[in-house]
Amino acid sequence: MIERRKEEFEATCKLFIDSVSNYFKVLTEINSEMGIPYLKNAEEITLKDYTGMIGISGNRKGFVYISADKTMFEDLIYIFIGIENPSNADILDMAGEISNVVAGNVRANLGANFMISVPIVFRGKPEELKFPKNVSIYVIPLKWNKHEAFVVVGLE
Amino acid sequence: MIKLLIVDDSSIMRRTIEKNLGHFDLEIVGTASTGVEALEVVKKEKPDIITLDITMPEMDGITCLDNIMKIHPEAKVMIITALSDKLTGLQALDKGARGFLYKPVNSQSLTKAFDKLLKRNTAK
């Protein structure tokens, strides 16, 4: 039973990896590289400069977030709309949009019962940020255009 | 000129759509970040074409689409969403959307979808 759940969880992580890869490939024509996923405890979670997080409900419960340095979001914004010095609001918006697309695309495989929230976006690590304790958390390291980022998937 | 309304809760996405549709002969009569804001623009401007996101705060795109069809049924609504399951697409088409695009959308996919939508528009 535990083995089956582990396989199911890893298959779900694979969907997120494919979704992130597709995002960068389609929109930037620069491929991303994914590192080997590893498990983390909620207390040890790493956050970079800016984060876009999506709550997951329906037949799966948990969250997914993408956290990266400011420069990665700046590069994406420049590619998309040609702005060189985006505002803080633009960077937060970019973090939210990428997490929304990555989570939403997973529904192609998991169906409409994999429900996603609107993005929650933040800078740094807000003190009030608490991760649920009953979720398994996988961290997937990501490299794109010389930037390092994390895709973090936490599911019950 | 054909009047366009862009609805998406992401400001980057609204500007990306605007930039990528710049070569079409369209007048952007408004942009909106929620379904509620979108309905205000629809009532006032009666846009010919609306790009509509689904996952938005306050009022989601499917509810907004329902309301648009009541207020301004002639509007050609193109859904642009990250929700890439078949059910969502079918639900939107059933409620009156004329086109459907899955994010991530790039310049080519937007152009292709708008070419198709505008040809249909001209034909009617």
From N to C, what is the helix and strand string of chain B? EHEHEHEHEH
Number of strands of chain B: 5
What average pLDDT do the residues of chain A reach? Answer: 92
Q: Beta-sheet strand percentage of chain B?
A: 15-25%
Quote the distance from N terminus to C terminus of chain A. 15 Å
Quaternary state of the chains = heterodimer
CATH architecture of chain B: 3-Layer(aba) Sandwich
What is the CATH third-level topology name of chain B? Rossmann fold
The helicity of chain B comes to: 40-55%
**Which class of secondary structure composition applies to the elements of chain A?**
alpha+beta
Largest sheet descriptor of chain B? 5 strands, parallel
Tally of structural domains of chain A: 1
Biggest sheet: strand arrangement of chain B:
2-1-3-4-5
Distance between the termini of chain B: 15 Å
Largest sheet of chain A: 8 strands, antiparallel
Question: What would you say this structure looks like, in words?
Answer:
The complex is a heterodimer of chains A (156) and B (124). Chain A has helices spanning 2-28, 70-81, 88-105, 107-110, and strands at 32-34, 38-40, 50-58, 62-68, 114-116, 120-123, 136-144, 147-155. With 156 residues, chain A is of the alpha+beta class. Chain A has a single domain (2-155), classed as Chemotaxis protein chec, CATH 3.40.1550.10. In chain A, strands 1, 2, 3, 4, 5, 6, 7 and 8 form an eight-stranded antiparallel β-sheet that branches. In chain A, a hairpin with a 3-residue loop joins strand 3 and strand 4 (62-68). The two termini of chain A are 15 Å apart. With 124 residues, chain B is an alpha/beta fold. Chain B has one domain: Rossmann fold. Chain B contains five helices and five strands, in the order βαβαβαβαβα. Chain B has helices at residues 11-20, 35-45, 61-71, 86-94, 107-123; strands at residues 2-7, 26-32, 49-52, 76-81, 99-102. In chain B, strands 2-1-3-4-5 form a five-stranded parallel β-sheet, with helices on both faces. The radius of gyration of chain B is 13 Å and the shape is globular. The mean pLDDT of chain B is 94. The chains are: A alpha+beta (156), B alpha/beta (124). At the A-B interface, helix 1, helix 2, helix 3 and helix 4 of A face helix 1 of B.
